[in-house]
Amino acid sequence: xxxxxxxxxxxxxxxxxxxxxxxxxxxxxxxxxxxxxxxxxxxxxxxxxxxxxxxxxxxxxxxxxxxxxxxxxxxxxxxxxxxxxxxxxxxxxxxxxxxxxxxxxxxxxxxxxxxxxxxxxxxxxxxxxxxxxxxxxxxxxxxxxxxxxxxxxxxxxxxxxxxxxxxxxxxxxxxxxxxxxxxxxxxxxxxxxxxxxxxxxxxxxxxxxxxxxxxxxxxxxxxxxxxxxxxxxxxxxxxxxxxxxxxxxxxxxxxxxxxxxxxxxxxxxxxxxxxxxxxxxxxxxxxxxxxxxxxxxxxxxxxxxxxxxxxxxxxxxxxxxxxxxxxxxxxxxxxxxxxxxxxxxxxxxxxxxxxxxxxxxxxxxxxxxxxxxxxxxxxxxxxxxxxxxxxxxxxxxxxxxxxxxxxxxxxxxxxxxxxxxxxxxxxxxxxxxxxxxxxxxxxxxxxxxxxxxxxxxxxxxxxxxxxxxxxxxxxxxxxxxxxxxxxxxxxxxxxxxxxxxxxxxxxxxxxxxxxxxxxxxxxxxxxxx
Length: 529
Known about the structure:
Belongs to the chondroitin N-acetylgalactosaminyltransferase family. By secondary structure, this protein is α/β, with parallel strands linked by helices. It is built from 16 helices and 15 strands.
């Protein structure tokens, strides 16, 4: 039965196959036949005296069309070949750039292959970096600048507020890096070349004149060092490159912060109006958006204390918030003492402490950063906050000063990264207690935060120091009291000067009279004309 069905089906299948082949042939002829330019060529009449010439012209035109069509096809084929070759080269480069990562990281059974792959990768880093030739850049801002250095000093462009254009390489990693480079260069210069028979000049670090270096973040660091030569006006130049290795996975973990509580500790004396503004921010970001938060207020003295307590109690009632502690101290204000007392007063489980001030604005995102960058016994978090300039200067040319939320913009015209401040910090209470807390002998403004920061730096804890977009220091007029020590008073005045406005804005204030005189002259000259 099956055989009979197959015999009956076979002629139908053959017929369908023939029809399909014919259809494909017709489609191919239609697709491949070159067409005229929107017109069908007219055939000459057979008995016309110009019939022969007409047919020859048609054949010649058809031949020309076919020739052009073939040329076009050849160009397309060449383009496809070039594109295929380019894709092949890209794939080959990717394979060279990232040799089998398992060989580099995990396969200890083939050390020779892993070493060869790593060396090949490092050599490719030199080829990719801007070492042997320049690279086309889109704008003047895309260039990676060099920094120069001598045996004693580093001359740098991106200085920040805490560093100088010329300074000693105080950071240990930078100092060790430059010493290593100079020593390596000296060793390379003193290697015998095997050609010259003259007594070789023995180079030392004292022959080093200057060097320049720059880092391309994904490739490596380029060093160009200049040494004194054998005679006057002669120099030896050596170029070194420290290639960066391939990216390696170190850790992959899930982090659950659902039950991680933050205890925000605020030392305070007077300043009730500022505290009211702070509680508005705390209520919105800490209570409503985050919800895993406790507030400890350590209040010094009794002046305005009832007003502060009333603000705290009203927030507690309206927001149904009970996670707060109010501690009152009958003594002179000391920020370090207030934070230390607040931290030690906590009796619950180990908790993240956020040392805060009343003139700070934070977001819910920052609170998560606070949790994610702290780890008991391992990490403490020292965020670099964005400090506002004086709004009356920034927005002096506006009809009115914008609302606080509209002022919280990170731009060079509105503020600066407060990289010289170490007062706002997050750490677990256990780490704060184990490190010894604050130096309680420091009174008044400033100094206690740097002392604690140095304690952490001298410990085995990792200090995470980074700018954060969700932490702002709100501008307020700073008063430097006569009771401060000379060092504290100097620090206070420096902070006060930096808080007012940018260099450009301060310059506009200084030259305000000149600018107004110039505008007045232009006004008079336009009237005359």
